[in-house]
Each structure stands twice: as C-alpha cells, then as structure tokens.
Design brief:
By secondary structure, the protein is mainly alpha-helical. It folds into two domains: 24-226, no CATH class; 240-312, no CATH class. It is 57% helix and 3% strand. The chain contains 15 helices and three strands. It has helices spanning 24-42, 81-101, 104-109, 111-127, 130-138, 143-169, 174-182, 188-208, 210-216, 219-223, 238-241, 249-267, 284-287, 291-298, 308-312; strands spanning 59-62, 67-70, 73-75. A three-stranded antiparallel sheet has the order 1-2-3, with no helix packed on it. The longest helix has 27 residues, at 143-169. Mean pLDDT is 80; it is low at 271-289.
C-alpha cells in the first residue's frame, strides 16, 4: 500500500481463541468475576424493612417518587450531591489505581471484561479449549457444529436476558416486576429496556469483545495520560526479546552448567567477588564455548517465538 493511499481506521475482527490458564492472578480474576456478577444479579432481591408505605427493596432507584434508596440511606433530589461526591471519589480512586498499577480496571472489573470472561467460560465448556475451538471454527457447518453453536448461543442468550432483567429490577420492586413480565402486565419500557440490554450483552460479550475495547471504549485514551515509566504494565519488552528465534539447546545447557558451577563454588565460602557471574562470552574457557558460537547466540533475544503469550491473550495481541 502506498503511503499516499488512504488507510482505513477500522480493521475487520479476527477470531481470538484464548487458551485456558491457571495461576494466582487467574484465580483472583475468577473470584472478582463471581463477586461482581453476584452483586449485580442478587442485589435487587435483598429486602430491607423501612416501615409502612415505603419500599422494602434494599437498593432501589424510585424514579416515580424521585428517591434513591440504598439500605438505610434515603437520598432525595436536593441531596444528590452525596451521589455526585461518591462518583467523584470513585473516579479519583480509579485514576490513582491506574497510575500506580496500570490497567487493573480493564483486566479485572470492567463490565466488558467480566461478561466477556463469562461468555468465554461458556464457550470453553461447550466447545472445548483453544485447539478444539480453532478446529470447530475451521470446520464445515455439519450437525455437530450446529448443535454446539446453538447450545452456546442459547446459554449466552439466557445470560443476556438475565443481565437486562437485573438492570430494570433496580428501578422497581423486583418480585412484582418479575411476575408482571411473565404475565405480560409490565410497562412497555421494561420490555424495551430488557430487549436493548439483551442485544448489547449478547453482541458485545459474544462477538465484539476486544473490538469494544479498541474502538468504542474511551478509557484507553484517558489512561494513557495517567501512566508513566513507574506504572506496572504488562507489555512485551522489545529490547529484551528481539530479535526473536529458537535458542541453541546445547548452548543453553552450557550456560546453565557454567552458572551452576559458579554458584556451587560460591557456596563453599570462597571469595564472592572471585566467583561473581561474568558476561557469557568470557565463560568460553569454562564451558568449552567458541567465539563464533557466542557471536551467533548474541544475535538472538530472549523471546523463543513459542506463541504461548498470544494463545492465552484474550485481546489476541
């Protein structure tokens, strides 16, 4: 493509199939996902006795009477500055966490991340791990593929409907509205809101995923101004990994043997300075290396191009 030709600002989405991973951070992410989803879906059903002629729902946005109930707190329109203050403090806290710890909001508590994780969990449960999903994606549309896809989409749709329904439950008495929804006595606005949120949840979590983060979300543009060289960032260090390539196995064993020998001699209590690690080319007499082989090794960075980081990345980068 010529530099003078106009370039599109949008790239067609390529399917991403993240591999299942385990570890402390993944476990922490599962816990946060479970807690946040539990709070969202269950909070409208918590009862709170406020006395006669008052709603007994713990968290309720009463638009008709212009009240906001949060457990024992009742906020009137002229007291809305309390809510504004809470939102300002939450925003400042988010800015602080982003400056110190990087994209913790995007990685753990962003609604797009949480629901995408939930949809991928269903996808993995129905279709299998990464390799199985890749094979299914490339396979033709036979009965097995239709069965798996319809099963996955049906579960996604149930989650999306529950998500839209949970949202409207915050604005009226949840048990009453649920009964009215099934008896078709609910207000058309309730059905319309649930339908819109069902579609957006189904589409964003199932098909758009990282496209929302790249093109629709304003937060990546904002957080760049709050990060500096001391911010914790998960990123590829080009100066360390490049040029990437397969490492010489024999050379790696020689390096490990030299380091083990130095560590063993230092453990005997000899002078630490005498046995301090030296740059690898200077160890050729200890491990039987050669200047030619050392020069060849120095041309390769630490990245062995195994693609493991790409296979587990939900963003597919």
């Amino acid at each position: 493509m010529s530099v003078n030709e106009p370039q599109s600002l949008y790239a067609a989405r390529e399917p991403v199939f993240p591999r299942r991973v385990t570890g402390n951070f993944r476990t922490l992410k599962w816990w946060i996902m479970g807690i946040t989803l539990g709070i969202y879906y269950l909070t409208p059903w918590i009862r709170w006795d406020r006395g006669p002629n008052l709603p007994d729902q713990a968290v309720l946005v009463d638009m008709a009477h212009r009240r906001f109930y949060f457990f024992w707190i009742e906020i009137w329109p002229h007291e809305f500055y309390f809510v504004a203050g809470l939102l300002i403090m939450a925003g400042l806290g988010l800015f602080l966490f982003t400056s110190a710890m990087g994209r913790v909001w995007c990685g753990y508590t962003c609604p797009q991340t949480v629901w995408t994780d939930l949809f991928i969990l269903v996808e993995r449960w129905v279709e299998g791990d990464r390799n199985a999903r890749v094979r299914l994606w490339n396979a033709g549309w036979d009965m097995r593929k239709w069965r798996l896809r319809l099963t996955k989409w049906s579960i996604w749709l149930l989650i999306a409907v529950a998500t839209g329904g949970a949202w409207v439950f915050y604005f009226t008495d949840a048990p009453t509205l649920l009964r009215d929804l099934f008896t078709l006595d609910a207000h058309p606005i309730a059905y319309t809101t649930i339908a819109i949120l069902t579609f957006t949840t189904f589409f964003f979590g199932g098909f758009a995923r990282e496209q929302i983060c790249i093109y629709a979300c304003p937060w990546p543009r904002i957080q760049a101004a709050m990060m500096d060289e001391d911010t914790i960032t998960v990123a590829y260090r080009e100066w360390r990994g490049e040029p990437r390539g397969k490492h010489n196995l024999r050379l790696e064993k020689d390096r490990q043997a030299a380091e083990a020998k130095i560590a063993a001699e230092a453990a005997l209590g000899a002078n630490a300075a005498k046995y301090a690690p030296t740059p690898y080319p200077a160890r050729e007499l200890q491990v039987g290396g050669s200047p030619e082989r050392d020069a060849e090794e120095q041309k390769i960075g630490d990245c062995i191009d195994c693609m493991a980081c790409v296979n587990v990345c939900p963003m597919g980068i």
